[in-house]
Automatic annotation (TrEMBL):
It comes from the Bacteria. Belongs to the peptidase M18 family. GO terms for biological process: proteolysis. One of its GO terms (molecular function) is aminopeptidase activity. Its EC number is 3.4.11.-. Keywords: Aminopeptidase, Hydrolase, Metal-binding, Metalloprotease, Protease, Zinc. This is M18 family aminopeptidase. The keyword Protease applies. InterPro entries: Peptidase_M18, Peptidase_M18_dom2. GO terms for cellular component: cytoplasm. Its cofactor is Zn(2+).
Amino acid sequence: MAHTGFNQNLIDFLSNSPTPWHATRNMAKALDKAGFQALDEREEWNLKQGQGYYAIRNGSSIIAFRTGKRSPLEAGVRMVGAHTDSPCLKVKPNPELRRKGFFQLGVEVYGGVLLNPWFDRDLSLAGRVTVLDGQGRVRDCLVDFLRPVAFIPSLAIHLDREANANRSINNQTDLPPVLMQVPEDDKTAFSDLIREQLGKEYPDVEVNKVLGYELSFYDAQPANLSGLRDEFITSARLDNLLSCFIGLRSLIDSSGGEPALLVCNDHEEVGSMSAEGAQGPFLSSVLDRWCGPENRSRVIARSMMVSADNAHGVHPNFSDRHDENHGPLLNQGPVIKVNHNQRYATNSRSAALYRHISDELGLPYQTFVVRSDMGCGSTIGPLTAANLGVTTLDIGVPQLGMHSIRELCGTRDGYTLYQVLTAFMQRPDVG
């Protein structure tokens, strides 16, 4: 089937992208292979028509674009947005804890983590480390322990008889993972363990000192096909690396005839207020350098943004949590997300274009509206729409287990969204 190879590449991307830095690096490698040229924000840009380019900020956010054969002033820009971060447990700056012979690390909860599934799982550790090397230079290194190195054990039910009825989690005291056993006089510093890992991954780099790190724990189990008929994909970080992968493949596989852009921001899960987040200036800066700041308003008036972020599929055990007329089903098509209180940026015009393209391709789509008595989440869509003034659509692949350490989606929906976004990126009329 057409989506089989697409899904296998998706599974590889998910398994090899445990952090935003690794995801961004893997996207850059794919862009390099496709002939896109890397840009440095510190240098002058000399952009040419019909070429592909990308820029990275903080190592964790990336913007890639095709200049197209027509000027953005004439054609507008077809934009797709997603985010590289996912809820997780991040290691604190001074994390060492020694209790009853166990060596543990203090962690900070990042984003809206569904905490219970983090217990009793094989955990690994990955992220960015900043070091002083042997030449006296400050440099960044990405590390990934790859194998299980930590575990957060549950308290046995014999010691907590109410566990199945009422077990709350204290973020400070209940979550520090166990990494190893140590003697009472142990003086191991976490930086020593990082140096050991750096020696394995960067044998040619002399590390004089570990100056800082941004490391997070992740599920060591790789992404997989699941279900008796392989109709599901199970993985960590489906929200929202799935959308990053779809947007990446759509941009690379589009014809390149029209100006098109992919932005994958970090920090969406904590509000997007950062230099590389959707509330920051990264996208505006790239557009200004591409189109000219004096032309940006005219370009935006002809452009459209598709904010791709996964949607809440109907849970078979909790179907009453959805509006009865707006319950998306897995493998029944991507989900147009609507909220008239502007938690999603979709309007009738942006939704109509997506429906029109889908109808032309003979592909399915669904619509989600949250129950009127429940709060609604949000995406980078409203933030980008407000910052740029661009017509925006919020859409996403339906999934279950959102913000868990392990999530589930259908095998057909991602490929469907890829087909529509590829057509969108090469469509002559969007503005």
